[in-house]
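Homework help board

Subject: predicted structure for assignment chain

Our instructor gave us this sequence and asked us to write out the predicted structure in token form, then describe one feature. I got the tokens but I'm not sure how to describe them. Can anyone check?
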Amino acid sequence: MSLSQARHLSWWHIIRLGLIQTALGGIVVLTTSTLNRIMVVELALAASLPGFLVTIHHIVQLARPRIGYGSDIGGRRTPWIIGGMFILAIGGIGAAFGTTLIPQNHWLGVGIAAVGFFAIGVGTGATGTSLLALLAKHVASERKPAAAALVWFMMIIGFAVTAGVAGHFLDPYSPERLLVVTSTVSLLAVLITLAVIRGIEPAPAPSAATEIEVAASEVSAKSPFMIALADVWTDPQARLFTIFVFISMLAYSAQDLILEPFAGLVFGRTPGESTQLAGVQHAGVLLGMAAMAASTLLFKSRGASLLRLWIRGGCLLSAVALFLLCWGGLSSATWPLEANVFLLGTANGGFAVAAIGAMMVLASAGQQKREGIRMGLWGAAQAIAFALRRFFGHRGS
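My token output:
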């Protein structure tokens, strides 16, 4: 059976879409982490500057609902995924170029970098929202939780591989090396996207295409973006889940701000030792993701209840792990910090991909042709949470 006739995407197609997440993660880690470090360490700039630039990247993603609405109306996600990756790649190169200009012309460099981070936000929003909407629409319901875990796992691989390989080629640091490495990663991301996206999105049959065009014309005539957004917001389930995503992701991301300083101040860990804790935490995150995916595949008939269990259990276990960190800091200098952090990471990983799986399930529920705007709304809630965390974190520093 051809892909155009297939009802759902196969695991091979899901893996290929995961490669796009890997490519996206590669550009994002270079711009939000590597450029951050270069500005603070090599260029001796105040940490508030890269914090402000990364906040731009998050705030721009408030446009995710509008992007999702556009892909809903068009009926195709592939152009948005490709276009978003092109914009993301251009933004990554622009941000790196602006960074290299700062020592010679401070304000020009900052201005170019700001435009670059703006483009990064637009590109990330377009690619990420459209890819998740595509998965939500064309992946079988029983596969959605595991598919969410797989694509997020592959994005983390993009973080890790790019950070390691790019870090190797960036030493010894020079502006020229930064531009070459960033341009190479960005070009590879675009080429990977063009190669793997081909033929994945099922093409509608001629009769279905006519129906989609009619539906799109009706929606565009009767439901402009704000009306469509209001329609989604009036759904109690969608509205409650949006609030949940915002609160939970704010707490989820805020942990990053306190973990390493807490380990140094309370447990006396050196900078190197506290940095290694991030590796321990990420190992736990991967275990939590794998466990969530395995459980939903083994017990397909209980997929919805398992998602709720992982979301609630992950939140509760994260709270317990954080409480134990506080208790350990107050009670004993020999507290098993690594084990505690590993537990925190496991809870976070299981919760995060379960929440994304729930997004995919809910996005395809209810009104037709609304997967994009629903995924965009939840992505915007997450972006607001990350922006607030970044803003208040740098004000605190």
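Reply (TA_rk): Your tokens look well-formed. For the description, you could write something like this. The mean pLDDT is 83. That's the kind of observation they're looking for.
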